[in-house]
Amino acid sequence: MSRKWAISLTDCIFCKIINQEIPSYKVYEDEAVYAFLDLSQVTPGHTLVVPKKHVTDIFEYDEDLAKEVFSRIPKIARAIEKAFPDCQGMNILNNNKELAYQSVFHSHIHLIPRYSKEDDFSIHFGNHQDELTESEMTAIAKKITDTLA
Fold first, then answer.
1. What is the pTM of this model?
2. Can you tell me the distance from the alpha carbon of 43 to that of 63, in angstroms, rounded to the nearest whole number?
3. Which end of the chain is more exposed for a tag (fewer CB within 10 A), N or C?
4. pLDDT truncated to tens, each residue of the chain (149 aa)?
5. Domain hosting residue 90, numbered range
């Protein structure tokens, strides 16, 4: 194990939460994941689901870990929805790497209940549909599919 890796695990706030070294508001735990309230509470019930295995981001998941972690999301999401009957929807977000707004470098999935259009939360998807030709779209798809194993 490299020194850099050892330091990152030792200093990982989510590893410390999982190991009960730092308190959290736990909502769910099993052998694969630990779910707890995000302290920011963008909306009431905002929950983080983290794999117990330390992985930095989605790029470090293998298929088994992905199955373990992502199979828990619906169960936790339904529990949040049931706990908050005025919940009208939910955003499920997973930011990967700094440019994509990842701020804690232990993979985590945000479950953000939505109550109204006035919630203090927004996502903007730019629409560049008219900027790419059919051949450019085909080339982009081919570039991705060519790298799949």
1. 0.89
2. 31
3. C
4. 333 343 345 689 999 999 999 999 999 999 999 999 999 999 999 999 999 999 999 999 999 999 999 999 999 999 999 999 999 999 999 999 999 999 999 999 999 999 999 998 888 899 999 999 999 999 999 999 999 96
5. 3-145
Specify the CATH number for the domain of residue 10.
3.30.428.10
Pairwise CA distance, residues 93 & 111, whole Å: 7
Phi-psi region of 34 (alpha: psi -120 to 50; beta: other; left: phi over 0): beta
108 tagged catalytic: yes
One of 46, 54, 106, 108 is an active-site residue; which one?
A: 108
- Rounded-to-integer distance, Cα 138 and Cα 65, Å: 31
- The closest alpha carbon to 121, from 94, 76, 91, belongs to 91
DSSP H or E run through 77: helix 73-83
